Task: inverse folding
């Protein structure tokens, strides 16, 4: 019996993990599929368009020919004047006159464009030219940006949970180290520890009466009545929660013995996971300085890797480029020679946008708290002071 029960437990554990990860995988997979479909669409529409040489292009060639002819006829002409004329003429040129659309709108180039659309980065290096491409770009962004924000919120919960737990463990470790330093070479109030252990050992397995709860707590007679009532109420709530947990464990055992009932339970859990999106992000409370350090380290790591394939970028330029990308500013002043490699770096972009989003959320909360303090302080200053009359 033991040998058969162990594989069943393993299967049940795998199913629980699968249904817990399922909502997060759905969001990421849907975003990947959406990006691939957009890449196929834009590569077909923009890549197969015909380049019509307009009258402006012919005028551009005529002006360029006249400037070059004047330079060859008059070699004594000032070089600065020639540079100014060429610069003015090149400013009127359009990129489509000299670039083949199929070279830009390949599958990977279109995929890179789609990522810049729904992440709201928008470098501006690649943009639709045809009327159909522009309309489809607006429609694509209309659905892609909310989907991207949903993925950011969902993954933000995961990162917020990891950050909050790591910060709590760090604080516990720090308090233990300080306590060990203070208690080194002394008994450190062993009597108080024994009292707290005795107080924590309140019987919860069996129902307790109010008198038993009161008797288990020494020194309750010396406290005021309202504090005693509060303690009694908290103990009763703890006992009720413990019984609720035991009842849930019993129902889980029944469902595990009956797979038909377990399906409804797992589906309700999946729905609950969808409903809990964004809750952990609201509960996050870590120092803003810690988030700034995390962002700096995260961008520095990418800035050290990026110049390996982008040879024109050094560490400072790569750091600037990653910051502009993760904050979704996207000036487009830094051109990438190999956007395919950076496209495979998309997971880094999404996680980095998560970290920046969390930092902005914490900064927003701190800013609101600061405004509240300032407003309350100004309100107290404006309040008329109470006059104290002599008795």
Result:
């Amino acid at each position: 019996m033991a040998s058969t029960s162990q594989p069943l437990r393993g299967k049940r554990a795998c199913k629980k993990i699968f249904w817990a990860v399922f909502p997060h995988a759905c969001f990421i997979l849907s975003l990947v599929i959406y990006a691939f479909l957009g890449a196929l669409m834009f590569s077909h529409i923009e890549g197969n368009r015909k380049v019509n040489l307009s009258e402006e292009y012919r005028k551009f060639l005529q002006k360029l020919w006249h400037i070059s002819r004047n330079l060859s006829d008059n070699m004594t002409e000032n070089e600065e004047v020639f540079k100014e004329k060429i610069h003015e003429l090149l400013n009127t040129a359009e990129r489509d006159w000299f670039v083949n659309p199929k070279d830009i709108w390949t599958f990977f180039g279109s995929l890179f464009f789609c990522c810049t659309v729904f992440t709201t980065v928008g470098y501006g290096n690649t943009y639709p030219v045809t009327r159909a491409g522009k309309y489809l770009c607006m429609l694509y962004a209309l659905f892609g940006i909310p989907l991207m924000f949903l993925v950011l919120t969902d993954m933000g919960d995961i990162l917020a949970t990891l950050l909050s737990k790591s910060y709590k463990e760090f604080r516990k470790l720090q308090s233990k180290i300080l306590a060990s330093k203070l208690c080194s070479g002394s008994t450190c109030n062993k009597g108080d520890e024994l009292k707290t252990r005795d107080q924590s050992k309140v019987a919860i397995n069996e129902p307790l009466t109010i008198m038993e709860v009161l008797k288990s707590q020494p020194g309750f007679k010396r406290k005021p009545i309202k504090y005693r009532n509060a303690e009694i109420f908290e103990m009763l709530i703890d006992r009720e929660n413990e019984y609720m947990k035991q009842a849930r464990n019993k129902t889980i055992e029944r469902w595990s013995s009956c797979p038909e009932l377990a399906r409804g339970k797992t589906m309700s859990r999946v729905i609950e996971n969808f409903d809990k999106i964004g809750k952990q992000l609201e509960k996050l409370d870590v120092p803003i300085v810690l988030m700034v350090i995390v962002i700096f380290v995260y961008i520095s790591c990418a800035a050290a890797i990026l110049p390996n394939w982008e040879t024109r970028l050094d560490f400072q330029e790569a750091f600037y480029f990653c910051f502009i990308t993760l904050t979704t500013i996207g000036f487009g002043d830094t051109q990438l020679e190999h956007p395919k490699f950076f496209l495979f770096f998309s997971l880094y972009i999404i996680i980095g946008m998560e970290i920046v989003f969390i930092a902005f959320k914490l900064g927003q909360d701190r800013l609101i708290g600061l405004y509240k303090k300032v407003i309350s302080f100004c309100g107290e200053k404006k309040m008329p002071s109470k006059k104290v009359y002599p008795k």
